[in-house]
Amino acid sequence: MKRSILLSTAALSVVAIAAPALAEDTTQVSDVVVTATRLPAIVAETPGARVIDSQTIEQRGAVFATDILSDVPGLSVYRASFGGVASVRMRGASQDKTLVLVDGVPVNDPSQPAGGFDFSGFELGDVSRVEVLSGPQSSLWGSSAIGGVISFTTTELNGISANAEAGSYGTARGRLGLGVATDRFAYGVSVSKFHSDGFSAADKINGNTEKDGFDNTTVNARARYELTDRLGVDASYRHSDTDADVDGFGPVDALDTAATVNQSGLVRLRVADVLGLDHKFTVAASDIDRVSKSAFPSVYSGEHRLYRWQADSRDQNARLAYSFGAEHEDTQADLNGSVKAELGVDSVFGVARFNATDRLSVTAGLRHDETDTYGGKTTGRISAAFDLGAGLTLSGAYGTGFKTPSVAQTVCDFCFILPGTTVAQLVPETAESGELALGWRSNDGRFDGRLTAYRLEVENQIDGYFDFVSSEFYYVNLIRTRTDGVELEGRVDLGRGFDLTAAYAWTDAENAVTKAPILRVAEHSGSATLGWKGQRLSGAVTVRAEGEMPDSGGMRDGFVITNLNGAYALTENVTLTARVENLFDEHYQRLLGYGEAGLSGYVGIRLRY
């Protein structure tokens, strides 16, 4: 399996490099900009940064975040069942070390044992772009950003949009969006609904037949108003309601269910040119409620409140550009009615970019977080990009990160400790990472690619400890984990409407002391998408592959799957859509013991007015 993935990736790389010779038309491509860096930055000059826009989401037929995030090099998605908890690892770091933002609002689950985010019900119908920042980003966003940051930006609607689709596993989904957008004001709302009868993840392994259904309703609202040329206000709100049937541990069929309600929103006041700075004052909140029905039912809830002031230099494209500010965050959790706990943090931060010459830019960030439980922590990051000429860009970064124990870990929820056992007090996790990248972009913009090598080390990583003799369970700080990795990615315009995007990641994650591999990290993974766009017909074929992966209970086999997506424009406003997932009906698992969907097809219609 490893050999086949390596050979496939090498072949795709050769095609991508050779492909410009096949092109006939000249296409100029503008620089892609990432904004989750607080200072807007060009992706090609920002190590570890990627942007997925709405056109890419639409081209690949992605419905949920899990459908598109698997294409990001160094990022792996796994879940126990369809509609069940879906987790993301970035550069080998555990799922709780990825900070997730929606319109700048942190939405990680404070009631989840490690404080991670469940991507299973995150629908993309209202998302205009996804930004991924790999590597420690605590100097920008504070705790939990050790592996990186995933930032979702929702759409400012202008007009009427509607989608409807139906297909395999009794699946049906629909979306309606209405909005108006002008220079002075904007307002809009969208509603998406998804239903599937599902399938038994255990069926792939043990011959079980009980289907695991999945329902999701997502509501998104945005508004913006420019009061004057210097004063404006905007607000957003997102509500997601998910109900899922889940299989039991083993895996075995079960009648267990999980219901989750996520809410997040913000109100932001923007004031321009005060003391030579542009200011943003933000009040944001996110809440989550989880109800699980099983042999061990539970009810969990979490709340997050954020108050932020940020000041930006007026000209963000000047030779020296900078941003700085302060935040206060409160996190609360109710753990099954047995424990209620709260964590708070006060922060100050700053980031600056200096264009030393026309070819060299340097960016540095510094942040101090003062927690009410675990003391203070200062983190930083410095990066640089140098134009080597001939389309080559050399960039590199060094950054530090930290993560405080979650609420559940702090109060030791789920723990079972016998009298007389001494358990060490948990301390925050810390991390440092260095990376070096070489990118190349052709003069005509038809090809761009990047090769990145990095090392990520995490000190005092928190994990659960189970004693097989005494059956005790509690949380401990591991000594150190280390991930070495290489990420290769490229895009090429093949001409005549064809384009090819490919990515590959080699990830070697281990306990730096025992040398044992970190579970649920595949050493080899990659994807490639061949897209085509004509006057009326467009489509894409995506191939994704992962090598074997160590998991609890053994080694999960590698897999290769193929998805197809197509669209036919009947008119300027009406488009028919079709997609096929797992084209060759591969029996595969993302998580050991839990099967994924087989060959499935879906047809739909898309309206834009």
How would you describe this structure to a colleague?
A hairpin with a 4-residue loop joins strand 16 (277-293) and strand 17. The chain starts with a helix and ends with a strand. It has a 22-stranded antiparallel barrel. Strands 3-8-9-6-7 form a five-stranded mixed beta sheet. Strands 1-2 form a two-stranded antiparallel sheet. Helices cover 7% and strands 59% of the residues. It is built from six helices and 37 strands. With 609 residues, the chain is mainly beta. The model is unreliable at 1-29 (pLDDT under 50).
**Radius of gyration over alpha carbons?**
24 Å
Span between termini: 47 Å
Residue share in helices? Answer: under 10%
Shape: globular
What is the number of helices? 6
- Poorly predicted regions: 1-29
Let me know the number of strands. Answer: 37
Report mean pLDDT, rounded to a whole number. Answer: 90
Q: Which structural class is indicated by helix and strand composition? A: mainly beta
Largest sheet: 22 strands, antiparallel, barrel
Roughly what fraction of the amino acids lie in strands?
over 45%
List keywords for this structure.
609 residues; mainly beta; 22-stranded antiparallel β-barrel; 5-stranded mixed beta sheet; 37 strands; 59% strand; globular
Fold topology:
Layout: H1 2-18, E1 33-34, E2 41-42, E3 49-53, H2 54-59, H3 66-69, E4 75-79, E5 86-90, E6 98-102, E7 105-106, E8 127-134, H4 138-141, E9 148-154, E10 159-167, E11 171-181, E12 185-199, H5 203-206, E13 212-226, E14 231-248, E15 252-274, E16 277-293, E17 298-313, E18 320-335, E19 339-355, E20 360-371, E21 375-389, E22 392-403, H6 407-411, E23 429-441, E24 447-459, E25 462-466, E26 473-477, E27 480-495, E28 498-511, E29 524-533, E30 537-546, E31 549-551, E32 554-556, E33 559-569, E34 574-581, E35 589-591, E36 594-595, E37 600-608
